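Sample intake sheet
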Amino acid sequence: MKKAGFKVLENEWIPLSDGRKLSARIWMPNKAAKTPAPAILEYLPYRKRDGTSQRDECNYPAFAEAGYVGVRVDISGSGESDGDWDDEYSERELADGCEVIEWIASQTWCDGNLGMMGISWGGFNSLQIAALKPQALKAVISIGSSVDRYNDDVHYKNGCMLYSNFFWSSTMLCYASRPPDPELVGENWRETWLQRLNTQPFPLANWLAHQRKDDYWKHGSISENYDDIEIPVLVISGWADGYVNAPAAAAAHLKNAKAINGPWIHKYPHFAMPKPRLDYLKEAINWWDKWLKGIDNDVEKLPAYRAYILEDARPLLHHEVEPGRWVAEAELPARDTRERNYYLAPNRQLLDIPGRTREKPMESPQDCGTSCGEFFTLKADGEMPADQRRDDSGSLVFDSGKLHQPIEILGRPRIRLKISIDKPLGNIAVRLNDIHPNGEVSRVSWGVLNLAHRNGNENPVPMTPGKSESVEIELNECGYRFMRGHKMRVALSTSYWPMIMPPPEAVIATIKLGPDSVITLPVRAGIDVFEQAEPKDENPLPEYKNNETGLSRRWIERNFQTGESHYRVIDDSGEIEVPDHGMCTRHRHDERWTIAADDPLSHRALSRYICWMHRGDWSIRTESESEFRCDADNFYIKATVRAYEGDELVNQRDWDEMAIPRDHI
């Protein structure tokens, strides 16, 4: 396929040393045939042919026009690539990535200089491969990623198991079960498909086998040794995304890093919501021009950290534009940021001086937390955190007085608590909220702690019931301006469901108020503005035909007879037709999370994920079903993957219920 200034190679094979071949889609500048060019690699399992094609066709033509070869590669066992998928960021995946880089650098159309980029999976492995130091890799752009796989991904957070550990396993069961495109691989597509179906892992079983921060999670966590990354890195995320901590951490710890946090969900920032957006294509091309072509464009003089400060952000279902402004810090830690303490005081007050010493018990209902939103949001709607008042009603809250002057924060708030619990195991969730004059309550930041992990994530130790200890919890990175007339609120709860899984027993926590319990905010002067360009094209994604309308619903059902709460999600993409080759795809997932307000062991989760693909007379469907429940000693999981060609069931794989011991969770 030819375009102005470049051509598209729909499927090129990259040979690996063990005989497997990985599939690549390449955007080739016309001039590269005579004058080799730098290359940009994106490497992930989400199917270049029909999964990420729309955003790829937005990004890579712009790079090709700027003189870069774009190479989009599916990892082993996904899309048209050979082999099996084994796990996230496995040693084989990263080793394959290094081989891919070596192959690209050796091609006649490449000048030997590569950049690597991606969002989410591709953002993760860009950083991880950079730490392995392949010779040709000269720069990275990582979006929506993490430097700490245990504490800042979809699996665990400070020893608490996240709901998304289960959800993401169900998703990958279905994603990994899809076949290659017969139009590209020919008649052996069915044989490849059946092999995938019968070799793919049940990811949740593996992730539950590592409930503490062991070598499994340290692998690929660049925070274990930041010095491993020597090349320039640009790390980007958004406040509405779960991956907000990586940008500032990278800017503070890497040798040559820049960072950006905007108002966005988990999307590329030139088409993400809420607005304002970032002119990502210009930002990226400037980055590549400096580090791959050696053009003197002063990229190295950019501030270490650019952030969008939210102002008066209301908890609405949909935000078109978030009010606020861009600011910049020349370095991290920022010189103009001052720590300001606010003490948890009797009468539910948040004071700037310690109040009287007093003990306050709390016991949250098990369904406290249903306004939490998704961990990583893909739509700026009900996936965002809702009004926090219902969750606050099940929490112990501490409010400031009405603010006479704005308070602006940028960084990670942290809270120190003197706490005891009446059981050996328990969780604490902390939210920093903004109370608006009209009574609405917005979540600004949050953090959680499994108290057995209070001294670290590697060797958890249960609490001694009734014994008070000082613990510290670091909340997520945030940029927020509390406006005049608003109030600040700190909300504490022993539950945050379904975001984190409950402990084995209901817990009563006792907080010692006064000087022993204090939240520290990273406060800045708040008088600066950084001018940040927005993209000129408000709709940069190419238009794809929608053959069937999608559906997105989420709601809470509460059974007042049984005391159960049911959190329900239905998300249907509708049928989308890819231009040029006519592949039609559709994805639908249906989740149900259940818990009784007084019984943590009543927690259970069900997930069903369906993928459809068809073109002409060819059609397939894969379905994954997963179940999760628990008792005081074990987690119980099971799953099924069914595959259909037309209406015929061609394969069924069952993982019978297995018991996995709880490890201080």
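Comment: The CA atoms of residues 42 and 128 lie 13 Å apart. The mean pLDDT is 96.
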